[in-house]
Amino acid sequence: MPAQQASVERMYVISCGENHVKDVSRWTPGVNVGKAHVFGNHCYLIKHAKGWMLWDTGSADRIAAMPNGLTAPNGIITAFMKKPLAESLREVGVAPGDIQHFAMSHGHGDHSGNANLFAASTLYMQTSEHDAVFGAEPQKFGFIPANFEKLRGAKTIKLNGDHDVFGDGSVLIKAAPGHTPGHQVLVVRLPKRGPVILSGDMVHLVYSWNNRVVPSFNFDIPQSGRTIDEMKAYAQKTGTQLWVNHDLEQHANIPKSPKYVE
Ligand SMILES: [Zn+2]
Questions:
Q1: Which of 24, 62, 100, 197 is most buried, by CB atoms within 10 Å?
Q2: How far is CA 64 from CA 27, 113, 137, 158, 180, in A?
Q3: Cα-to-centroid distance, 245 and ligand 1 (Å)
């Protein structure tokens, strides 16, 4: 796409919580065994000439009221939310109802925590993820059904692969299965910085991207590896950077909302 046709105007990178873990080797099998780690968590608000799009919703806003965070029943992860997503949106003058286009990388709780706020948006989901989230056994995939209560009736565009959201090549949903059945990533053509891939949980750390590391709990481990290979080839061919949602260290160098990136 010629630069003048890329019509993303700016993107707000919003801190959407932190996940504290006691043993990071669950995400990096064989490496850093027994080491505690803090994962970041981010949501991305895109201003396109034709409207707003939100990518991922972080952990549930109600966690912001819990000083000790919310520990998962298995005790492995404690989620913290410093500022509710609704408040971060308000800060930049955006109400949930202003967001026409809404997609999540996948259905896990640290990405779908506030999904119900966006029931009036058009939801873009891979069919395989939709089937798992709204099927008979969402828990089997690690999904929390309550996070999607209001989305059953939402206007939904079910995808079976890649999708050009605004029809101009500036925002692309790309199927990236493995972590969950219908995991996807988002390619955003920023007007000044150029194209970036927003990783979702395709990888959890830059380390994992560089070393093709797949967590042991992924839905499909071989497919997760193939997805990394395919996305690396895509990134190389198109000169696209990868922004790893949960990599706190990498995101420390990216301006956060209410500042924005272009
Ligand atoms: Zn995650």
A1: 197
A2: 25, 12, 29, 32, 27
A3: 8
